[in-house]
Structure formats: structure tokens, C-alpha cells
Design the sequence.
């Protein structure tokens, strides 16, 4: 089998398309989570702890000199990223937990016995008597 034929089968099989869709949805979800953190959660949190805007928090390690820009450690952006990651991880955990709960309900649904199973059960019950 030629390499191109194998690749075509792989690409058409759906693995590549599923992965691409997952990446696109993940990217969109990441934008939503970032907006949630930056625009909804961080402003009230900053207000609660004294009006602090984390995204503006930084330490200047070396001031700008001449044409060289300042060297700045932006720890506030890092805090926002940690909160962003935590919220995305929590959301994904809840989605997976919900999916697993649905799968358990489907798996534990009682299956109606077949005619042969009913007969075997009746015979077993008769032999016990």
C-alpha cells in the first residue's frame, strides 16, 4: 500500500477531522474562559482585595534606558493565567463527570431477558424446588 493511499485513508477515516474540530472548539472555549477570567471574575476579586487589577501588576527589573525597553516581570498576567487554567480545568472536569454519569445510567439500564433466558430461569427455579 502506498504512503499516499495510507495517508488518504487515515485523513478520510475521521481521525484528522475529529482532531481539527476538537482543536477549534478548544480554542473557542479558551477564549470564553479567558474572557470569563479577565472580564467577570478578576474585577470583583480585585475589588474585594482592595481594587487591585492583577493584569497590571508587575515588577520592573531594569528600567528602560536609551533605546532598550524596560525588563518587566508581569506576575499579574501569570496570576490571571493560573485562574484561567483552573477554570478551564474545572469546566472540563464537570463536562467529563457529567458524560460519565450519563454513560453509567445507560450501562446500568436493565436489559429485558430473552426468551431462552426466561426458560432457563424457569427451569432453574423448578429444579430448586
Sequence:
Amino acid at each position: 500500500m502506498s504512503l499516499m493511499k495510507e495517508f488518504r485513508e487515515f485523513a478520510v477515516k475521521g481521525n484528522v477531522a475529529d482532531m481539527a474540530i476538537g482543536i477549534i472548539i478548544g480554542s473557542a472555549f479558551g477564549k470564553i474562559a479567558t474572557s470569563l477570567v479577565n472580564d467577570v471574575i478578576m474585577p470583583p476579586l480585585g475589588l474585594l482585595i482592595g481594587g487591585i487589577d492583577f493584569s497590571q501588576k508587575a515588577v520592573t527589573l531594569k528600567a528602560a534606558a536609551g533605546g532598550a525597553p524596560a525588563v518587566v516581570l508581569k506576575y499579574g498576567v501569570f496570576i490571571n493565567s493560573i485562574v484561567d487554567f483552573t477554570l478551564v480545568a474545572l469546566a472540563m472536569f464537570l463536562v467529563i463527570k457529567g458524560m460519565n454519569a450519563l454513560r453509567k445510567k445507560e450501562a446500568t439500564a436493565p436489559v429485558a431477558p430473552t426468551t431462552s433466558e426466561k426458560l432457563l430461569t424457569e427451569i432453574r427455579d423448578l429444579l430448586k424446588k
Remarks:
- Residues 15-48 form the longest helix (34 residues).
- The CA atoms of residues 107 and 117 lie 20 Å apart.
- The domain at 3-119 is CATH 1.10.1200.120 (Non-ribosomal Peptide Synthetase Peptidyl Carrier Protein; Chain A).
- DSSP finds four helices and two strands in the chain.
